[in-house]
Amino acid sequence: GYLNDKGVTYDYFESLAFQQMLKEKGIVQFLSLLKIFGKFQLHEHQFEHLSDPNLKQVQTKMQLFWGDEFEGHVIKLYDDQKLALLNPNTSGLFQSLGEEQQKKLPFVILPEFGAWMIELTPNKPYQCMCFNFDQVLINMRKRIQTLQSYLPQGNQYLLIPVYPMMGVGRFTTTVESDLTASMIEKIRSQTSYIEGTPTLQQDEKQFQNEKLIQPATPYKELPVEPICNYFSQSIYFDDRIINPHPRYSTLAQNIRLRRGSKVEIKIPLYIDQNTNVEQSEYEPNPGFITMDHMGFGMGNCALQTTYLSIDIDHARLLYDQLAVLAPLFAALTAGSPIYKGKLSNWDTKWDCLEMSVDCRSEYERNPKNPNYIPKSRYSSISYFISNDKMNLEEYNDLNFPANEEIMQFAKQKAKEMEIPLDDKLLRHLGILFLRDNMVMFKDKIHIDDNTAHFEAIQSSNWNSVRFKPPPSYNSKIGWRVEFRTMEIQLTAEENAAWSIMILMIVRLFFTNLIPVNFYMPLSLVDENMRRSKEKGAILNQKFFFRTNFQEYGPAVIEELSLKEIFFGKQDGSFIGIIGLIYQNRNIVSKQQCAQKEEYIYQKNKKLQDEVIEFVKSKVYGNTKTLATWMRDFVISHPNYNKDSIVTHEINYDLIKTLTSIKDRQKEDPHFPLIFSM
Length: 677
Ligand code: ADP
Ligand code: MG
Ligand code: MG
Ligand code: MG
Ligand code: MG
What we know:
The protein has 677 residues and is α+β, with helices and mostly antiparallel strands. It has one domain: 2-Layer Sandwich (Creatine Kinase, Chain A, domain 2), CATH 3.30.590.50. It is built from 24 helices and 17 strands. The strands form five sheets. Strands 1, 2, 3, 4, 5, 6, 9, 14 and 15 form a nine-stranded antiparallel β-sheet that branches. A two-stranded antiparallel ribbon has the order 7-8. Strands 10-11 form a two-stranded antiparallel sheet. The longest helix has 22 residues, at 598-619. The structure holds adenosine-5'-diphosphate and magnesium ion (4 copies).
């Protein structure tokens, strides 16, 4: 259920007494998964009817399950006042929908950090990599249309990464009273007995506190209400629009408590002719857009995809390989040029999320200190984990710190439990468990509830890729890898196209008919990540990439444009990723599809070609990224004063126009239909 799983959580200081115990339990849970599923393989018996052993082998490897997840904002448009505001009352919407009705849908509705956000996944993973690439397109269209049809008049389910006006004066519709009431109830239950934190009486005072948020700059004047910021202490963002499930406000509070101060998000401001770069209470860092709430990051939307692997070794290889591609796909899907009502110099939201949940203390953030931690718990990965011979020592060049104490414990336990735990997997655990558990439910800490204690650490390490073990001891699901850096796109067609693009690459690692090796030093992968957020990176930046990507030995690395990485070099010395896909397809497709109808094969091939055409139009600059499109929209808006500021009125026109494009009432060449089906 959506709201049922209530519970009472510890604040960070209380949780300190249990961190070590719960981390040890988490490790034991992971080791138990390793014991049960370490040798797990996709079942070959499904293909016993095939007589050709080669075909049988290929078919087995092709039995991929995969799925996507995307998030969107519920935005209410007020046409008479020219306002487009977040509607943080989605829990009410889905209570009215009921559980029975939700069960009948071909998709799953999931809560997210913001009470105005909705995440949707297919209710069953898609099957098979060979045929029916179109499942994702059909399912995505259905999800978006059905959800839209449930929303009350005037509301839009909009797929854009960042809502541009977050934190600007009043940026939400009224918060319904039941939500407010549940927040107060939560504060009561959380604070009454904690030493050193505010008493109940003080909490109530906080609610009455007439602390107003004033517009920071000459934004359009909006009605402003007192702010409730008990969890975050934000000066812009009201905690009552955090999802009412205790997990989310607890995360916000405990990240702040562990850090020792409010989170600080600083994004470089795009400086125009009339931009004001003076310091003020609301812009303490001149030349930057400053934000101070987890919601400025975790209130943004992404597109993620998850792939089942053949076995654990295969998952570990896929994890490494996809990690190299993660920065490239961030740049390709860039859609986040505006934060807190201002144009920024960045096009993607990844760094904003890193900063929004950065729980490292001041000490841990200082490179001079011995216990320095170089990255936030939301970050690109820092360690390759495969034991494949392609993974050379030199690629793991970050020398990233790990929780040595927990590694010692894991090593000892694995020995006791007689489970082989190799050094790479051990270090992976050590890196994950460097982070503290941020959400402990009081009634759950002493219960050994399947894999919950492992998942508490795992699911709050928000990395570019995630290595997912089977979700529980009795699971029928194997080892999976999640790809996490894509920005959500406006239309079902674009989201399907990018998902299929990755799928085509993932498929290279299932068939193994041609050699593919994307390994390169992680320091260069991180440099690519830094470059991926720059304005217009898709056309303006070069990225480090391995050009001998069909060889096993050390990497030959060049700086290439995305156009070259995908479509190859002019002189023919490098065929690009699309070249690999053609090569693979020529060998494998006819063979795999032998027992299927010819027309399905042809349909599938056409669909893939349409995706490749779409990717080509992006990397050649023939269609804009969502980021560039939004930037250009603001800059050419008649009310834009060349001062970097996006007013509520410009925002309304922007959201209104995007709405007509996604509904296909307005045609725009930068949001093509892509598919002929
Ligand atoms: P999370 O938020 O933890 O990443 P979600 O439940 O939102 O997880 O998404 C999980 C994704 O994994 C969904 O797209 C789902 O369809 C997909 N999935 C479910 N079962 C499998 C499976 N056996 N193999 C691969 N993918 C799966
Ligand atoms: Mg999800
Ligand atoms: Mg999500
Ligand atoms: Mg996910
Ligand atoms: Mg999730």
